[in-house]
Amino acid sequence: MVLEARIEELWRFEGQEVTLKGWLAHKRSSKRIHFLIVRDGSGFCQCVVYQPEVPAEVWERAERITQESALQITGLVRRDERQIGGYELGVRDLEIVHLTQGYPITPKPHGVDFLLDRRHLWLRSRRQWAIMRIRHQVVHAIHRFFDERGFLKLDAPIFTGNAVEGTTTLFETDFFGQPAYLSQSGQLYGEAMAMAFGRIYTFGPTFRAEKSKTRRHLAEFWMVEPEMAFFDLEMTMDLAEELVEYIVQQVLAHRRFELSLLGRDPEALERVRRPFPRITYTEAVEILRSPETQRMLRADEERLQAERAELEAEAEALRSERPAGEVRKGEIEHRLAEIAHRLSEIEEELKNIPLWMDSARNFRWGEDFGGADETILSRHFDRPVLVHRYPAAVKAFYMKRDPRDERLALGVDMLAPEGYGEIIGGGQREDDLDTLIARIREHNLPLEVYEWYLDLRRYGSVPHAGFGLGLERTLAWICGLKHVRETIPFPRMMGRLFP
RNA sequence: UCCCCGGUAGCUCAAUCGGUAGAGCAAGCGGCUGUUAACCGCUGGGUUGCAGGUUCGAGUCCUGCCCGGGGAGCCA
Questions:
Q1: pLDDT computed for residue A322 by the predictor
Q2: Which nucleotide C1' is nearest A484 CA?
Q3: What is d(CA A119, CA A114) in angstroms, rounded to the nearest whole number?
Q4: How far is the CA of A336 from the C1' of B14 (A)?
Q5: Is the pLDDT of residue A81 over 90?
């Protein structure tokens, strides 16, 4: 009786014969030995086929098998320090389940366009494997966090008749002859459910028809939105902080290997411990306009220029000297490509810095922060920062005003470090009926569609608050990715609906 | 909606001033006893995004369009 094993749990079977079922991720060969890198979804494992140790037909199959062929492989689990997981399989038998021909994604570099067109296959590669495992861990952590605190997970509808904030960024659909919009936020429904169940959270897809093509945007993304009765702004900030700390620590506890595959330095994440810095919008504006910010940006500029000079020198050396022998040619080519890529990134940043310096210096109280401003603010701190009490004019109609200063709204944003931008937005909701009606009128919104929402202020209105956390932006930050599109299995963005 | 960059072999990219379209990888074949994006040799592989223009001659210059990437605005 042969044991079936998943690669993830191979360590349990050291010295035993097991069967793996999976696909061939990669193969390296010599005359009498094949190294098969097999993946089974749970991990990757090197399987060694050594000609003198296997029957002729097994050897023949190992020679024939191609990248991404499906296979069933049996062998002895043995410890091998050279392997990433620490274990490898000494192959005794190999069955081909399906022989693949012409798999398009090779272990060599590809462009984004090519890979996105083949997202259904790209998901099989190692880097995507690591990201999706972390995505699962984050989702799991979120559910566990709220469950442990007595929240109910209840869902808001996806089709909605009323817009939360303007209609320009809504996807309109035909709902049995009536216009309906794809949800931009479950918040209003979340408030209704909080009045029924005290503490709830929604977790689902949200849709934004923003014509944005940037590394921070998706047309369809997932948002977790807790909403709590009898909560004020301070309690909400406490909860947001606790949630983000918990998510990060869970990833560190369970997905260290995946982080290392992504080249993510865990130290930046280790620092994500409460308390996070909290500043008011007004303080944030002072920081932006400060000489310290100008100094910081100038230092960044100098650092980038130094790095550019260093890389250019290294590339020059690699091109001219061509050290033969111990250094492989492929390694040099790879390093040169890496340098070229980094240099183009540096060029872009160097182009941006003067613009950022201008934008920061000239920032006026009352404006909303742009992407560059958020990046600059987050660079002043080594962990996420909470910015609260924004000018009410730039925030949504449902936000409660600060009783101590009517120009301000009791709202809060959390900015991720390292320039990943806003990952949380929320605050305390307006709970007074007449004030809310006045706000709806000020924003020129149709009162009729909000009648049900106003009922929440007519019958047992209480102070309440909530926030939304964007899953993909949070993941991009935790994984250290340049773009959010890699954090979701099938990204939907402007100009990309397939696959 | 606006600004910047790009589109050349299956993939990643070269091609000087406008002058014979090329390399690496992949694929196929051969070699190599432990490889870590293996390595070495050989072979096949092209409507240079599309349409028009300038020119003796266009991948290269000009005009328009299409597609993609990055950014602004807006946002999580």
A1: 46
A2: B76
A3: 9
A4: 14
A5: no
Which nucleotides of chain B does any protein CB come within 7 A of? Answer: 1-2, 10-13, 24-28, 31-40, 67-76
Instruction: Quote the CA–CA distance of A7 and A5 in Å, as a whole number.
Output: 6
Residue nearest to nucleotide B67 (CA to C1'): A495
What the block records as the tokens of A312 is 């250019």
How far: A320 CA to B19 C1' (Å)? 29
Question: Rounded to 5 degrees, what are φ and ψ at A414?
Answer: -110, 125
Count of positions (residues) in chain A: 499
Does the structure show a pLDDT above 80 at A340? no
pLDDT 10s digits, A415-442: 999 888 899 999 999 999 999 999 999 8
pLDDT at A320: 58
Give pTM, 2 decimals.
0.93
User: Under 8 Å CB-to-CB from A148, ≥6 apart: which residues?
Assistant: none
Distance from CA(A348) to C1'(B4), angstroms, rounded: 10
Which of the 8 DSSP states describes residue A165? S
Listed range (A135-139, A367-371, A478-482) with the worst mean pLDDT: A367-371
- Å separating the CA of residue A366 from the C1' of nucleotide B56: 65
Helices (H) and strands (E) in chain A, counts: 15, 19
Give the nucleotide nearest to A29 (CA→C1'). Answer: B35
- As for the ipTM of the complex, it is 0.87
Mean pLDDT for all residues in chain A: 89
Q: How far is CA A142 from CA A199, A288, A292, A412, in A?
A: 14, 33, 37, 20
Q: With contact defined as beta carbons under 8 Å apart, do A218 and A485 qualify?
A: yes
Structure tokens at A175: 């709902």
Count of CB atoms within 10 A of residue A108's CB? 6
Write down the H helix ranges in A203-324.
233-254, 256-261, 266-270, 281-289, 291-321
Q: Are A219 and A494 in contact (CB under 8 A)?
A: yes
- Measured CA distances, A467 to A203, A248, A366 (Å): 12, 18, 22
Asked if residue A91 lies in contact with residue A58, where contact means CB atoms within 8 angstroms, the answer is yes
Nucleotide at minimal C1' distance from the A395 CA: B75
CA A85, A91, A97, A103 torsion-angle sign: positive
Other beta carbons within 10 angstroms of residue A57's beta carbon come to 10
CA A443 – CA A392 distance, rounded (Å): 12
How far, in Å, is the CA of A52 from the C1' of nucleotide B73? 67
